[in-house]
Amino acid sequence: MSAKQWIARWDTAQTTEVNQALAAVTGKHNMHKKERRFPSSPFGVTDAGQEDFRGVPLSEFIQYLDVQHVDLSFARFRDGTGLNSSRFTHCRFDGMKLGGSFVTRHFNHCSFRKTNLKKARIGEGLRIAILPEPI
Q1: 110, 91 contact by CB (below 8 A)
Q2: How many CA within 13 A on the CB side of residue 93?
Q3: What is the pTM of this model?
Q4: ∠111-116-83 over CA atoms, to 5°?
Q5: How confident is the model at residue 44 (pLDDT cuts 50, 70, 90)?
């Protein structure tokens, strides 16, 4: 599917549900909660076994989470939100536009193919470990 098709598959109810679920687990104010996992996708998992969030419009920061096996390819952050103070392992960020977003913390075995990082605000201490081959 094309980027437009990944984005178009998300309806308002699904988008609202995902952003509300993220708001409930992300951020410093939620760090005391024991169950702080990235939400499940309404589209299940990809063929690669990652939660399928391709094309999702996000209005919440992804903050202070350990995120594993999530495909956020072609996802769009709104209102200057972004990936902040989280650890990402075996995740995909292919085709994302992170311009104007905050990007900080750790990325291990993640894919950033054709990701636009122009004007992205890269934080101190950012560590990225990218596999040389597709995951």
Answers
A1: yes
A2: 23
A3: 0.84
A4: 65
A5: very high
CA distance linking residue 87 with residue 35, whole number of Å: 16
CA-based nearest residue to 99, from 85, 88, 123, 115: 115
Residues linked to residue 58 through DSSP beta bridges, in sequence order: 77
Mean pLDDT to the nearest integer, 85-103: 82
How many angstroms separate the CA atoms of 97 and 116, rounded? 5
CB proximity list for 29: less than 8 A, separation 6 or greater: none
Cβ–Cβ under 8 Å, residues 116 and 99: yes
Distance (Å, rounded) from C-alpha 32 to C-alpha 102? 23
Across the strands, what pairs with 127?
106
Distance CA 12, CA 99 (A): 24
pLDDT tens by residue, 5-35: 999 999 999 999 999 999 888 876 777 676 7
Cα-trace Rg, the chain: 14
Nearest alpha carbon to residue 131 among 110, 113, 105, 106:
110
User: Which pLDDT score, from 0 to 100, does residue 29 have?
Assistant: 74
Q: Are 68 and 49 in contact (CB under 8 A)?
A: no
